[in-house]
Sequence to fold (277 residues):
Amino acid sequence: MSRYENYSEAAKYYDKTRVPTGGETLIGVLELSRQSGSEFRLLDAGCGTGAYSELVLPHVDRIDAIDINPDMLAVGRKKFANGAPDACITFHQGSIENLPFEAVQFDAVMFNQVLHHLESAQEGDFSGHRNALAEAHRVLRSGGVVIVNCTSHEQLRHGYWYLHLIPTALRALHDRCIPAAKLEAMLSEIGFAVEGRFVPLDGVLQGAAYVDAEGPLKPEWRKTESSWALAPEEEIASAEAKIRELRKSGDLDTYMGEFDAKRRQVGQTTFFVARKV
Ligand SMILES: C[S@@+](CC[C@H](N)C(=O)[O-])C[C@H]1O[C@@H](n2cnc3c(N)ncnc32)[C@H](O)[C@@H]1O
Fold:
């Protein structure tokens, strides 16, 4: 369960502004991991409303999608019930730190934008990450691939134009997002061979809504980007005041453009790829 974001509330708005990024490369990794002749089974760990599952479903044989929040799952179930009658996807409610699956079942496990929601037993030990990755290792077949999509510290600083408006949230996210080197070391310790990282530079997690310079003024917009749930009330109020002031002076778009400039070089997310040895 995310301690800071109310995903039952976010579920109402999530699909309006969230867009899966890095899809092409993700599909490429899955396609390359397929072995001809055998069923290819994927676990979407922390699936939310199933946006990534929807994207990759045509490229795998079967998906199990798990999330801890029943309302995010309800949106996902509805999506597939309406649009994809033959979809080989099953949704499960449960924690990715304690997967309800037998060992050695999956060919691939993907974690998209979920690990930073897990708690550490002690500050900086990222024990929640370790539990989830160890579970992924347990349920993967030998040679199976794990894909971790998360935000690096550099991406936190430069990949989201509005984050500097809520510095407390930025600091909290910095502590929750595992440094890249630490994640790779953890993967190796657990028994994965790290194959590489990739950074999609096109596309943003919030799609067209990301460039809505007035977004921070709208509660629905803030609900789909969990960083805002880490900001104290007074910081949100001061961010709103700043946006209103810039709107009044006619400088809002220029301001957003300036703080967004580096995002085109650093991206918003990093995908780590590792294989069970
Ligand atoms: C930012 S959303 C990402 C959803 C989806 N992977 C995506 O990228 O669209 C984070 C999700 O992680 C889920 N989550 C948080 N802690 C979890 C846990 N311990 N086990 C399973 N899911 C968890 C939340 O309920 C939420 O749906």
